[in-house]
Amino acid sequence: MNQPISPDRLAAGADDWHALPAGEALARLASSPEGLAPEDAARRLALHGPNTLPSPPRTPALLRFQLQFNNALILFLLAAAALAAALGHWVDAAVIVGVVTVNAIVGFVQEGKAEQALGALRAMLAPTARVVRAGKHATVPVATLAPGDVVLLEAGDRVPADLRLLRARALLVDEAILTGESVASVKTGDKVDAGAALGEREGMAYSGTLVAAGQGLGLVVATGSHTEIGRIGAMLGKVEPLTTPLLRQVNGFGRRLTVLSIAVAALLFAYAVGLKGMDWVAALMVVVAIAVALVPEGLPAVITITLAIGVQRMAARHAIVRRLPAVETLGATTVICSDKTGTLTRNEMTACRVVTATGGIGVSGAGYAPLGAFALPEGGAGLPANARRLIEAGLLCNDAHLRQGAGGWHVDGDPMEGALVTLAMKAGLEPGALRAGHPRADEIPFDARHRFMATLHGLADGGAELVVKGAPERVLAMSGSQLDASGTSMPLDASYWEGQVAAAAASGERVLGFALRRFALAPPQLDFDAVDELVFLGLIGFIDPPRPEALAAIADCRSAGIAVKMITGDHGATAAAIAAQLGLAEQPVVATGQDVDAVSDAGLRALARRTHVFARTNPSHKLRVVRALQAEGEVVAMTGDGVNDAPSLKQADVGIAMGNKGTEAAKEAAQIVLADDNFASIVAAVSEGRTVYDNIRKVIAWTLPTNGGEVLAIVAALALGLTLPMTPPQILWINMILTITLGLVLAFEPAEPGVMARRPRDPRSPLLSPFMLWRAAFVSVLFTACVFAVMAWAERRGLATEAARTMVVNVLCVLEIFYLFNVRYLHMRSFTWRGARGTPAVLWAIAGVVAAQLAFTYLPWMQALFDTRAVALVDGVAIIGIGLAFMAVLEAEKAVLRRWGVFVDLR
Question: In terms of pTM, does the model score above 0.85?
Answer without folding.
Answer: no
